[in-house]
Amino acid sequence: MICSLSNLTDEDLAQIRSLESELDSPLLAFSCHGIRPAVLDDEKLQKIEALENRLGISLLAVDA
What we know:
44% of the residues lie in helices and 12% in strands. The protein is α+β, with helices and mostly antiparallel strands. It has two domains: 1-33, no CATH class; 35-64, no CATH class.
């Protein structure tokens, strides 16, 4: 399972902002997905890691 920032409707966002104001604290909204990571050999993993380092991001190879 992997989680990412949620796509929110304007109504969802309004409700979250209201709660943020009440709590006086920012909130992050995440949605989780049942994705399985791919099993890769070392060469492929090294290519992914090199691109991650170059771009300053994290990548996840998944089973299609």
